[in-house]
Amino acid sequence: MDTKSDIREFLASRRAKITPQQAGLPAYGSNRRVPGLRREEVALLAGVSIDYYARLERGHLAGASDEVLDALAGALQLDEAERAHLRDLARAAGSRAPRRTKRTRGPIPASVLRVLDSMSDSPAFIRNGRLDILATNRLGRALYAPLFADDVPRPVNIARYQFLHPGGRDFFPDWDVSLNTTVSLLRTEAGRTPHDSDLTGLIGELVTRSEEFRTAWAKHNVRLHHTGRKVFRHPEIGEVALDFDAMELPSQPGLTLTAYSAEPHTPAHDALRLLAAWAATEDSLTATTTRTEEQQL
After folding, report:
1. What's the pLDDT score for residue 225?
2. Which SS3 state, helix, strand or coil, does residue 27 take?
3. Could you tell me the pLDDT band of residue 97, with boundaries at 50, 70 and 90?
4. How many C-alpha atoms does 106 have within 13 Å on its Cβ side?
5. Closest CA to 233 of 168, 164, 139
6. In whole angstroms, what is the distance from residue 61 CA to residue 95 CA?
7. Is the model's pLDDT at 277 over the cut of 60?
């Protein structure tokens, strides 16, 4: 990932989404050669010179003041996630690029794992920005059981399973929404940590091996992912739509705890009860197998 290229393509893609009418500008004539705003129109809306904006769009965000970034975000009508991404890109442009390194992290604190396990009625898991699943409670592992199958590479990674495993499209039936969410989350994380070699390696693998990922990645969409609804097609309980809430862990920067729930007395709530019963059965079978193996030793 090249910061200047990312800046150039992000800004160009954002101005391509806005028509003069949406920006409150007159559109003279019908023979416009660009799908959205021209550079000079963005410069006018942001209150900067055309030459300066052109320089920004060529990737030279280093040194841009907060006021300029805010004006640019307003001119391009950026949402909260896009504004944060613009600042991340400016920060990356203004820093000396270090040698790419792996992000090392200690174990998740036992207190956090106790909180995770205490959520006995809700599937929950902890992930990093790369979308590796680092820990689950019992229902969380049951919900994401296909990702923990023997033929799935470790560490378990939601994006790799979704785009590269044969079961990905079936497990995420709301495909277009799920696809764009996953790519947008990875694009957001790439803006935050552009020198993370593990993240860069994953994105390189997905771009190379998945045309769908490559197409979505080129759109430069970003998003915040705090709450919403996600659809699964689970091999044991069928299709279920669950509400989710995602909470960043203040004591563990970069980690997010996501919990799923369903309104009582709904089919989704019944599906979660069925999932819990199946998980209990699987636990019992595993315990029986373990005892049998121990007796044979």
Report:
1. 86
2. coil
3. low
4. 5
5. 168
6. 11
7. yes
Summary mean pLDDT of the chain = 91
Distance CA 262, CA 253 (A): 28
Phi/psi for 255 (5° steps) reads -105, 145
- pTM of this prediction? 0.90
* β-strand partners of 242: 230
Written as one letter, the residue type at 129 is G
Neighbours of 189 (CB within 10 A): 21
pLDDT digits (tens, 9 = 90+) for 255-268: 999 999 999 999 99
**Element spanning 40, H or E:** helix 39-46
DSSP string, 191-254: HH-TTBHHHHHHHHHHHHH-HHHHHHHTTT-----SEEEEEEEETTTEEEEEEEEEEE-TTSTT
Q: Evaluate the omega torsion of the peptide bond into residue 250 and state whether it is cis, within 30 degrees of 0.
A: no
Please measure the distance between the N-terminal and C-terminal CA atoms of the chain and give it in whole angstroms: 52
Whole-angstrom distance, CA of residue 239 vs CA of residue 242 = 10
Q: What strands, in cross-sheet order, belong to the sheet with 256-261?
A: 133-136, 124-127, 256-261, 238-248, 227-234
Q: How far apart are CA 262 and CA 251, in angstroms?
A: 28
Distance, CA of 45 to CA of 225 (rounded, Å): 29
For 37-74, letters b (16+ CB in 10 Å) and e give: bebebbbbbbebeeeebeebbebebbebeeebbebbbe
Residue 258 backbone phi and psi in degrees, to 5: -115, 130
Location of structure tokens 């990312």 = 6
